[in-house]
Each structure stands twice: as structure tokens, then as C-alpha cells.
Amino acid sequence: MIDNQLAKKINTGIPEIQPRELTVSLQDAAVQTESHKIWGNADISVEQGEFIAVVGPNGSGKSTLFRVLLGMQPLSKGDVRVLGKPPHRGNQAIGYVPQRRSFDPDVPIRGRDLVMMGLEGLNWGFAVPGPAQHRHQQLVEETLTAVEATVYADRPIGRLSGGEQQRLVLAQALVSKPRLLLLDEPLANLDLRNQIAIPQLVARLARANAATVLLVTHDINPLLPVVDRVIYIAKGKMVIGKPEEVITTKTLSRLYDAPVQVVKDINGRLFVVGLEQETAHPHEHDEH
Amino acid sequence: MGAHYLTTGFGWNLIRDIQAQFQYAFMQHAYTAGAIVAIVAGVVGYFVVLRSLSFAGHALSHIGFAGATGAVALGVNPIYGLLVFTVGGAVGMGALGKRIYGRDVVIGIVLAWMLGLGVLFLSLYSGYATEAYALLFGEILGISQTDVMVTLVAGVVTLAAIAIMFRPLLFASVDSDVAEARGVRVRLLSILFMVVLAISVSEAVQVVGVLLIFALLVTPPAIAERLTARPGTAIGLSVLLALLFTWVGLFVSFYLPYPVSFFITTLAFVTYLAVRLWIYLQQRFTKLSPA
Fold it and tell me: What is the CATH number of domain B25-212?
């Protein structure tokens, strides 16, 4: 009598590997609008705890990917799972920071209130003093400390700088201890110092909370120190792999179906050359 | 001594003055209805300013004007015409959701026509000018006991609705993309809030009339929002200011032969200017002095 484990080993010839839980999985997925296909044949698996950069030209469908994961956009084909289940609206296990212009300078809300909304914004009524409220305030305080925003948390959010606002919206996404963080272009309009500091901060906090991160960006370089893998979306196609596998002349040329070159400078920064004539699709769209 | 005091008018003993005013039923009604309207306007107005709906609120008051004059022409209590038209307009605007931004041209065109309709209805009622005046500029001194009860009920309903919606509404107002992604029913809240606004506008029309809605609905919260970024404090301040403007305006108008709404709006305006000036001076002097 051979036991099942042994049988499997004999059959496959490799030792049984415990599958890590997949945070995100797309199988032969496609999204189609009335006019055209945004992307298709997407086979992506993201494991728990990974830091994934989502890169690609304007209009390639990066934000669409997020909308699918948030349950706001259905697939036209294929299967998608988030944390093992089909995506649904209002998934409390996902922390989301959308693409954002900065807040109106006169918005009369403190950063602290904004972060609290991440915990309580869905509850009806208004906050009543008590032990639950106290616990929430403590959580907010801890999260503010973690993003290093305590100093300006009580000022009107519209008057803060881009980097400061970004830390606060990050805190809002993090305060409910999500398992998946979706950050859509958090580094746009930030100074260089913050472009490097924010990814480090995100990586550190995600590790501390055992969260998986998907971060959309235009420039992979500030993320190279912290990123595990890259999802590259272009011309309706999506690939995933380590930066050194994906952001190469060979892979990108295949993706763009055009002569594209990846150049590396002495500091290890990657530059994609030859994209000037490229657009993501024949029709230009606003979304990424 | 009492009767003599009543007829001589204002004295510096404010308690006596108020007591004198309260001798009159119409003044009691005016203070009560005014208070209810001010509280509601202060709370609802906070969200109007936050959601950049001042123009929509203005439009609602004009739409209400057509409804009110239509009701008068039909021989019905104008408040019902007010409510029907404003709520209808509110649902329409609420359904537009975020698309309402930048639609001020369309809204402007609609509200201009509404005023025209209102003028038509007035003329159909053989031009009852006092009614028109009251609707356009408010006639707080003509409020009956029934009107006070209706205002109270509408006020309680509005405040209860805001209390229930408070946190999701605040979330959706400040951060609608994230709120939507988190599962807040942003569209539904938008419509519900517009309906609440419609009811508040209908109420406020009694005190300051269609044309001067802003004095209670926008100026007090606008002042509050310049002074504090804490939502709770801002709402409290907004209510306090609205109450102050209404009651002081009422108090003063007892002694001077000028419309109440003039005093209310002037108080609001002057306070707003004063606060803006104070903030500006504060910023100038903190820049000059060493940090």
C-alpha cells in the first residue's frame, strides 16, 4: 500500500510544495468595452506579501486592473480571484488609494479625520464617545505615527504639501489593516525625495502587516529597491515577472510589437527608449 | 410702567427688551421658527459648502419659488408647492451625482425659467404682491402657530436624516472615490442629501425668502469652515452663527422699520468680512514675527 503523498511524489517527480495563498489571481482574463479590448489573455498570480509594481503606458489599462480587483469592473472573459474569492464592492480587506489630484486648499477636514474615515466612514450615524471610539482613535494615532504624519495630522488637509497629503491618504488605506493594498500612481507629483521615501514606507508597513501591495507607477526606478515583481501592461497584453526579466529589450519589444530598447545606466536605473511613437492603443483614452 | 416701556421701544436692559418683544405672539413664532431654520441651515449648510452645492442650493430655492407661486395660484398653502417642486428638483440634481459639477450653465438656465414661471403664476393670482414679496425676501414676522409646527416637524426630520447619514455622507463628500471603492452608496447619499437640502431650503424660504437663502445656508458654514478643520466644531460653530444672525436680526428689526432679512443678511455678510480680515491679518503678522 503506497500512501497518497508518496504516490504524488512518484507521479510528479517533484516534492509536494505547499501552495502559498494567492492574493490575486487572474486566469485568461480580459476586459472589453464596447469599442475595444483593454487587455486580454491575462494570466497573473500574486502571492501574499509580494510588492508588485504595475507599469505601462497611458491608457494601457492599469487602473482598469484595479477596478476589476475592487469589483467595480466585470471581466468580459476569464476568471479573477481576490484573496480566494471573486471580487466584490466594498471589500474591507482591500486598502485603496486612487489616482488623485491634491485636495482643494479650502477643504475643512484634518488629516486625522480623513484617516478615521478609513475605519468608520461606512458606519451610519456619528461617532459616540466610548471604548470602541477610544480604540479607533488609538489605531488612528498608531497609523499616523507609522507614516510619520503625526506633526501635521491636525492641520487642514488642503494646506499640506503633496508628500504630506500622500502619507495621510496612505494612512487612511492602512488603518483598517488591509491584506491587499492597491495604490494608483501614488508617486505622481511628488518630489524626488518622497518618490524614494514613500515606496520604502509602503514596503515597510506592508511587511509589518503581512499585506500584499500593487502599486501603479510610470517610473519603475524609485521602486527597484523594494519591488519583488513587475506587471507590465501594454498593447492589450499583460506580463508578470521580476524587473530584470520583464523590463528588458526582448520582453518589451515583444509586448509592444515594435523595436523598443531598455537601457541601464551606471546606477542601475532602467530607461525605456523608442516609445515616442508608441501609444497603448490606436484610440487614446484617459484611463491608465 | 410696562405698557409705557412697550411703546417707547429699545432700552439697554436687553432682558426687558426681549420680554417686551415676547409679549407678541408673532414675535414668539418668529424667534422659534427662526431658531429651527437657523439650526437646520447651519447643519445642512456645512455639507452644502463641503460638497460645493451652493449654486445647486440656490437653484432649488428658485425652483421652489415656482412651486410656491403655483400653489398660491391654485389656492393651496405655498409651503406644499415649495416642497413638491424643491424635492422634485433635488431628486433630479442628486441623480446627476458628480456630473453636476460644471453644469452650472444648465442649472442657471433652468432656474431662470423657474423664476419666469413664478412671475407667471403670480400674475395668474391677480398679482398678489405681498405674497411675492414674502416668498422672495421672507416674512418671518408673518409666521403662524401652524407654520411653527410644520417647521419643527420638517426640522426634526432633516436633522435626524443628517444624523443618520453623517459619517458616510462626510466620507463621500470629502473622498468620493475611496468611499465608493469601500462600498459607500455615494449616488444614493447624493440624492438623499439633495432631498434633505430641498426640505431645508423650503423651510429657510419662510425666514429669508428665496433670494436670500445664502445668508443662512452658506455664509455661516463658510465662516465656520475658515476657522476650523474639525467637522464637529465646524458644524457647531455654523449653527451658532446662523442662530446669532437670525435672532439678532430679529431683535434689531423690532425697533427699526426695515425688513428682517436685511438685518440677517447684513450681519452675516459683515461677520464674514470681519473673519476673513482677521485671518488675513493673523497670517500677515505671523509671517512678520520670527517663527
Answer: 1.10.3470.10
A174, amino acid identity: L
Q: How high is the pLDDT of residue B2?
A: 38
* Separation between Cα atoms, residue B68 and residue B73, nearest integer Å: 9
Summarize the confidence of residues A141-145 as an average pLDDT. Answer: 92
B134/B151 Cα distance (integer angstroms) = 16
Look up residue A153 and give its DSSP letter. T
Out of A108, A109, A122, name the one closest to residue B182 (CB): A122
Across residues B205-220, what is the average pLDDT? 81
Are A125 and B164 within 8 A, CB to CB? yes
Q: Which residue in A107, A125, A173 is closest to B174 by CB distance?
A: A107
How distant is the Cα of B110 from the closest Cα of chain A, in angstroms?
28
Mark yes or no for CB contact A121/B181 under 8 Å.
no
Task: Report, as an integer, the average pLDDT of B46-73.
Answer: 87
Classify residue A1: in a domain, yes or no.
no
Per 3-state DSSP, chain B is made up of helix, strand and coil in percentages (nearest 5) of 85, 0, 15
Q: How far apart are CA B78 and CA A130, in angstroms?
A: 46
Contact A121 B230 (CB under 8 A): no
Mean pLDDT of the residues in chain A: 84
Q: How confident is the model at residue A101 (pLDDT cuts 50, 70, 90)?
A: low
- Least CB-CB distance to B231: which of A72, A109, A123? A109
Domain count, chain A: 1
Residues 6+ apart with CB under 8 A from A3: none
CATH number of A67's domain? 3.40.50.300
pLDDT in tens, B14-42: 888 888 888 888 888 889 989 999 999 99
Nearest CA in chain B to A89: B183
Tally of CB atoms within 10 A around A251: 17
3-class SS of residue A230: strand
Interface of A with B (CB under 8 A): 70, 72, 89-92, 94, 96-98, 100, 106-110, 113-114, 117-118, 120-127, 154-157, 169, 172-173
The domain of A124 spans: 21-247
Shortest distance, CA B111 to any CA of chain A (angstroms)? 28
- Rounded to a whole number of angstroms, the distance from the CA of A274 to the nearest CA of chain B is 35
CA distance A101 to chain B (A): 11
Would you say residue A202 has pLDDT above 60?
yes
The C-alpha atoms of residue B253 and residue B246 are separated, in whole angstroms, by 11
Query: Tens of pLDDT along B133-168?
Result: 777 777 777 788 888 888 899 899 999 999 999 999
Domain ranges of chain B: 25-212
Q: State how far the Cα of A79 lies from the Cα of A102, in Å rounded to an integer.
A: 35
Hey, what amino acid is at A130?
Answer: G
Highest mean pLDDT among A118-122, A198-202, B117-121: A198-202
Residues 6+ apart with CB under 8 A from B235: B42, B43, B46, B221, B224
